[in-house]
């Protein structure tokens, strides 16, 4: 359930400026100076052994959460969606899309918490019986990630102990309705994959 707070909407991050050949050349020269790439006789930049090792180490931070359905799930909320460890909910809990979750904010791995606090792009994939939906949001250095019962994703920039990510491109009412209909059955399992991009 969502607090009765008026929250200012914040603009999404501005798109990257157009990348020019000069920008690429400057970046490659900087990598060359750090021993990450070298310039071949044929006029191409190739990663060094050190560069290859670092490239292989760069991978998204990923965590999976499981939640279950409930007959009172309506998913009508316009600014958030939530999963909770609670076993039962009322119909006015219109932001909740899953109950009996195996994790709340407090239970997330330290690796994921650290990645979320770097303010990077977060991709959240919801899957129910082969139907998938994806939400893009953002982390923030201000995240607390300490709540023992809930995980909330917000379209606004409001942050409390339950907030996993902010500035999301979807709320509960925008998640695929086929998923929500299936989640009205208490035997339906939902898989939520949270991935923080490098």
Give structural attributes:
disordered N terminus, 2 domains, Jelly Rolls, four-stranded mixed β-sheet, four-stranded antiparallel β-sheet, 198 residues, 18% helix, 27% strand, 4 helices, elongated, alpha+beta, single chain
Describe it.
With 198 residues, this protein is α+β, with helices and mostly antiparallel strands. It folds into two domains: 21-57, no CATH class; 61-196, Jelly Rolls. The protein is 18% helix and 27% strand. The chain has four helices and ten strands, in the order H-E-E-H-E-E-E-H-E-E-E-E-H-E. It has helices spanning 21-33, 49-57, 110-116, 177-182; strands spanning 37-39, 45-47, 61-68, 80-84, 96-98, 121-128, 131-138, 150-154, 163-165, 189-196. The strands form three sheets. It has a four-stranded antiparallel beta sheet. The protein has a four-stranded mixed beta sheet with strand order 5-4-8-9, with no helix packed on it. A hairpin with a 2-residue loop joins strand 6 (121-128) and strand 7 (131-138). The longest helix is centred in the first third of the chain and has 13 residues, at 21-33. It starts with 20 loop residues before the first helix and ends with a strand.
